[in-house]
Every structure is written in C-alpha cells, then in structure tokens.
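Record 1 of the preview.
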Amino acid sequence: MAVPGQHQDGHRFVEAALAQGALVAVVERVPTGPDPGRLALVPDSRAALAVLAATFYGHPSRSVPVVGITGTDGKTTTTTMLQSALGTALGRVGSLSTVDFREGDLIEPNLSRQTTLESVEIQGWMRRMVDGNCRAIVLEATSHGLALGRLDQIQFAGAVYTSITHEHLDFHLTWEAYFDAKAMLLERTRARGGFAVLNRDDARAYSLLAERAGGRRLAYSAAGEPDADLRAEAVQRTESGLRFTAVTPAGRAEVRLSTPGRWNVGNALAALGAGLLLDQPLPALAEGLGRLESVPGRMERVELGQAFSVVVDYAHTPAALTVALHELRAATAGRLWVVFGSAGARDVAKRAEMGKIAAQLADQVVITSEDPRDEDPEAIIDQIWAGAIAAGGTPGTNLQRHAERDQAIRLAIAGALAGDTVLLAGKGHERSILSASGAQPWDERAAAEAALRERLDR
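->
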C-alpha cells in the first residue's frame, strides 16, 4: 500500500517493494519504473487500505458492539473505565487505548506511540478479540485516526465524547476543522442507528454535537447540570480515590473509583452512559468501575516513603494541565510544583499558553523537554518560558528550566519540602522520548523513583 505520509510518501518505495517480492502495489498515482500490470490504482490509498484490512479480517466489528471514545482529554481513562464496567456485566471485553490493549484480564502495553493504530492493526486486533470471545470492544478514536481513514469500515455501536478543547492544530489548523474531525465519529455512528454519549459540561462542543446526534443519546455532567441525563452527587475524595452517587435514567448507584482526580467523575459517568445504552444493568456497571485499580500514567502516585507527594500524569494540553493543577492544589498543604514541557513538531500555539497556566497555578515551575523531535529543545523551552514570564513567573525564584528531563525531575524533587506536591506532567505512560537522534528509552515513574532514592540516600 503506497500511502502518502506527513514526512515520507510510500510511492517512492513502490519499485523497491515489488523488486523484493511484493506481488501488487496499491497506489494513488502511477510511479515511473514499475510494471503497470502490478499496480492497482485507487483514489485514496488509506481508504482502500481500510477496505482491504476489514475484508481480510472478516469485518470483526459486525460481530460485537464497538464503542468509540473521542475528545481532547480523558479518552484513555474513559476507554479503560468502560472496558472494566462492561466486563462485570458481559464477561470478556476488549479495548484499544493509548496505554494498552486489553482482552479481559490480559493486558499488553501499547508501545507504538499511536493512540489510534493504522487500519490493518486495528482490524487485526479486533479480529483477535472477537476470536478470543470478547463480547464488546472499546477503542480510542483520535482526530487523526478519523481524518486519515484509520477507523473507516468499523461499524460503531456508539460514540462517547469527553471534551473538545485545544490540540493538534498543527495538523487540523483550526479548532473548527479539529471539531469536524471529532464529529465524524458521531456522524458515522448515527448513520448506523448507534448511540451518543455527550459531555454536558463542555458547553461549546455539546451544543454543536447535540445538533448532529440522533435520538439515542445521553448527556452527562460531573458538575451536576440539572438537564443532564447522568449526574454526580455527593462527590468525595477518599484515601484510595473518589466516591459519588451516580444519578442515571436507570436509577441511582454508589460508585467508588480508585482513580484520583475529580475530572474522573465525568469519565466514569460517560462510561456508565455507554454501558446503559448497551442495555447493561447499572449495578453491574458500577461494580465494574470499582474493580478498576488504576490507569498507568494517569494521576499515578510515586511513593517511596517521602514526606511529599509525587504524581505522574499525561496532562499535555492546556486544559488537562489546568485541571490537574487545580485538583492537586486542593489536595496540597504545602507548595505545588510542576515539571513539564511541550512536544516538538506539534501545536506550537499551546506552548506559551501552558507556560502561563503553570506560572498562574503552581508555586514552583520547572520547564523541560517532552518530545522535541527535530526541533531545538531549548527553543521550545524558550516559548514556554515566555508565557510563564508574561504571567508573572520570576526566573530563579519560582521559575526554572533544564532541557534534560531527568535533571529537571531531580531539581524539583530535591527542592520539595514536607507537604509539597510535585506533578510530573506530559509523559505519563510513554516509554520513549523522541528527539532528532531518534527514540530514547524513557520511564517517567522510574526517573521519579531514581530522584527520590537519590534524595532519601543523602
């Protein structure tokens, strides 16, 4: 399959592929050199790839209900919550997320750095799950995956939306184009008579999505909006996470979560809504949510006996960083630290904004690298730094920088006092840092533990 990519065009390699044993090349245009008799010309290679993949694997999405989860933040947690909630009611359930691939209790890490895989991989995983007796599949649906046809040929039973804020404008260019890509999931689901679960607290996106949704839809509100179908009451923090009362069309249920962060109330309500629209009983869904222990890299605490808190979280957008800092502020007796950066070759506009947010909401800010890719790490830090300075950050007082991420983490952990909280944001579960020299192995939790041991051994 000759697919035009962001950095390379597969058509450049058709002749070499045929010479090395490929029988046929599917192309969008005829390259010079290869025998035309071994070329299949199509209008869109990605669309053709999705058709071939679904056909090759026997259209697995026709065998079990498939639910797509989309939004800017919260997709992974909601996907994993729904997989766990449905598991209690249905038995074996599959999921495909940024973090991992799950078949019931079997978990395989997602090391691809892709949230939504290419269509061949997705169809292959779904076939494996169907053959493994999974009775439903939940998958993350990114704007890239939708716009690039990776999710074509999947028969979605439902679409769940978290929130749509500010991300990937390097690819989509405008928020409107980004929203339209996200809305493709809803439109495909509605065309097949599927359901929608919408976030009533995301006013801008909700009003636009509600216009496009079909009749089978539920709205949820962690903030308790009275016109929402699912609401949360009596939300309380516990030592292990959260508990609240879910008010739903099927009645009320007590929900206990081992995942901290009040925003996870909304994610849990979204999962309950999808489960109800799949005709599963509310008590079993609530029980399934309670069985989920944690989601790697999502508000993950690192405890080695230190007198302050260290939290690893994937927050890498302005909205996610804002929510994480607000949440941790409420639970912090001392100072709130944040260590973060911003990815290279991605949405440039968010860099200064995230610097501003950090300076306004944290007491101590350490700016570092995330995934610089082909960009100069110091130049990215400069852009974040400028936003922090504009918001009142003072270099050397409450604002520091270090391009080496492990050193930035050491700096923050060495400076933390009893009662402080150190948030390590942006990498979460990821196992590499992408730079001009390629992918370098990385483990955020391990880096935090190393810095803690170094401090505790002093």
